[in-house]
Design goal:
Strand content of chain A: 25-35%
InterPro entries (chains A, B): ATP-grasp (IPR011761), ATP-grasp_carboxylate-amine (IPR003135), ATP_grasp_subdomain_1 (IPR013815), PreATP-grasp_dom_sf (IPR016185), PurK (IPR005875), PurK_C (IPR040686), PurT/PurK_preATP-grasp (IPR054350), Rudment_hybrid_motif (IPR011054)
Oligomer: homodimer
Catalytic activity (chains A, B): 5-amino-1-(5-phospho-beta-D-ribosyl)imidazole + hydrogencarbonate + ATP = 5-carboxyamino-1-(5-phospho-D-ribosyl)imidazole + ADP + phosphate + 2 H(+)
Largest interface: A-B, 33 and 33 residues
EC number (chains A, B): 6.3.4.18
Number of helices of chain A: 13
Subunit structure (chains A, B): Homodimer.
Number of domains of chain A: 3
Number of strands of chain A: 17
Distance between the termini of chain A: 45 Å
Keywords (chains A, B): ATP-binding, Ligase, Nucleotide-binding, Purine biosynthesis
Helix content of chain A: 25-40%
CATH superfamily of the largest domain in chain A: ATP-grasp fold, B domain
CATH architecture of the largest domain in chain A: 2-Layer Sandwich
Chain lengths: ~350, ~350
């Protein structure tokens, strides 16, 4: 079976590492000449709207999936004429647009911060008044890793903010005084069977994920599964989806979903029976899902900008390196480490060792 | 770091799957147009004695290692002029020749079946008389998976046997009434640090490995480590080496060594903290070795001739599929499954499930 992937970055790379042992081949469509997945599959170097190359991809592969959600809707629609596409165009349409996404949460009874559609500065002025400050203005589409958003704390921040984000459709979200950020990675098969990984506690810095720690028997696991299950069924979703929540007052408020394998699920490569990457491929290929049970106690730390010296990373016990083979650049995710330890105390010590290496010790 | 591998079969494929996350790139030199590792690295399609292409490989990579031991000595010597080669030419020279290998065992005080060098039918007649029957005649080089050998049970089997194996240098080995076959996979770093995986119990059929079960606290572990350690130090070995033993009268008799990652170590991908593939690469690249500790209870079953339907393999709990992407052909190793279970009773049940799929149930 040959899998087409839109995007050829580290997520594509890890999909291929998981799928090759299942007998799958891969083709990645990505305009970047140095797309790091190309070491592990065919690289179709083309723009996402290049119909000739999209057609070539569709002709070569058995199905198409995505590495990121900001794929033009036309790309998905075009591909869908020729080849099965998972997740579906309709699921992507909602997941890639914060307004559609939040509206769906509301419709499904999933708590989410107050939000308003912003098409102009006048919309923003009105919404800032009704929702109150602080609040966060976010572009409806194309935001990631803290990009395409601005925190509005005072009235001065509101003035001109719509233009500052490019005068594109936005939403304003009420600021949530959360006590923690957690995410749930789930997988849904073609036949609707759904499995959930354990809730993960995430720590961000400057909008970029730094640390994920997998939990055991988290008191909010069942609630999170309930919420995520509603979304998966609503979207008739196929594949892996990640759902980010704020922990607020002992409950959960929905932040956003990502219709793909997710950074907060990277720990599953070593830390669970079947990784998010393998489970995504099993789901889209119509194969039985794998177990999402934990193996040991795990955490994931991102390497941002550079990977520390490999010999030093590998000298840390319980540490598994994932180097993405990308050029180092400030603010860029270029690798991660998974720690899988026998108990939480050991895990905590190991996290300290990796943090010391990346200058956080 | 770019690694050159002589050979591009499933061992090369699994080396790349283990090394890519360490930031390594791979080039495989293999004459086969369909070498299955080519999905995961550059394929230099050339004969092992093609000096132009060997030179190209040497120029492209930081070091060279091997997927199999039957590489012409001239190939290794040629490469060694231009690039570091691990394991060394001298280690390969001994490991690829059963006479040198057994002589080394004897020199190091490692028990091994009685053996004799056979250069002619007259040598064979004399050795069969002194060693006694049954005995096994094996070519000194190029044997694998039961190929290049003949069991001699009666006097009639001896007559003409030398010609039958091609009138090439052979050894005759006394038949050992073993109660089991075990192997120890070990890794030795450039600085001499050595680590051992747990002893594995192996079951062969028609000379081909079918089932490996990793042991816990095997009573012969320390003895095996002692023997293997002697060989590693003698050869000043760098990388992974597998040592196969017969269990005889509660002790061990050396069968043979393989100077490479080995089929009986495939279970380590899921079943140990750091797989034999990653540890081989860590060793040859001069990186710190990884832990050889077990994770759960593991077994490996080979898929010979064909891989059972993927959906049926993946439906088995605790089962991890490794499809080599090779054309199916009778007698060919085309994949394997690792089972990693929480206890031995569960593992035994799972082995039965996989065996049922491959028609052994």
């Amino acid at each position: 079976m040959k899998i087409g992937v839109i995007g050829g970055g580290q997520l594509g790379r890890m999909l291929s590492l998981a799928g090759t042992p299942l007998g799958m081949d891969f083709a990645f469509l990505d305009p970047a000449p140095d797309a790091c997945a190309q070491a592990l599959g065919e690289h179709i170097r083309a723009d996402y709207s290049d119909q000739d190359h999209l057609r070539q991809l569709a002709d070569e592969v058995d199905l198409v999936t995505f590495e990121f959600e900001s794929v033009p809707a036309e790309t998905v629609a075009f591909l869908s004429q020729f080849v099965p596409v998972y997740p579906s165009a309709s699921a992507l349409r909602i997941a890639r647009d914060r307004w559609f996404e939040k509206s769906m949460f509301k419709e499904l009874g999933i708590p989410t911060p107050a939000f308003a559609d912003i098409q102009s500065q006048a919309d923003l002025d009105a919404a800032a008044a009704s929702i109150g400050l602080p609040a966060v203005l976010k572009t409806r589409t194309l935001g990631y890793d803290g990009k395409g958003q601005k925190v509005l704390r005072k009235a001065e921040d509101v003035a001109g903010a719509f233009a500052e984000l490019g005068s594109v459709p936005c939403i304003l979200e009420g600021f949530v005084p959360f006590t923690g950020e957690v995410s749930l990675v789930a997988v849904r098969a073609r036949d609707g069977e759904t499995r959930f990984y354990p809730l993960v506690h995430n720590t961000h810095e400057n909008g970029i994920l730094r640390l994920s720690v997998a939990s055991s028997a988290h008191p909010l696991q069942a609630l999170a599964e309930d919420y995520v299950g509603r979304v998966l069924d609503k979207l008739d979703y196929v594949g892996v989806l990640a759902f980010e929540f704020f922990e607020v007052d002992g409950g959960l408020k929905a932040n956003e979903i990502a219709p793909r394998v997710h950074n907060s699920g990277h720990w599953t490569i070593e830390g669970s029976e079947c990784s998010q990457f393998e489970n995504h491929l099993r789901a889209v290929a119509g194969l039985p899902l794998g177990s999402t049970a934990k193996v040991g106690e795990s955490a994931m730390l991102n390497f941002i900008g550079e990977v520390p010296p490999v010999d030093q990373v590998l000298a840390i016990a319980d540490c598994h390196l994932h180097h993405y083979g990308k050029a180092f650049k400030a603010g860029r995710k270029v690798g991660h480490a998974t720690l899988r330890s026998k108990d939480l105390a050991t895990l905590k010590a190991r996290i300290g060792e990796v943090e010391a290496l990346i200058g956080k010790g």
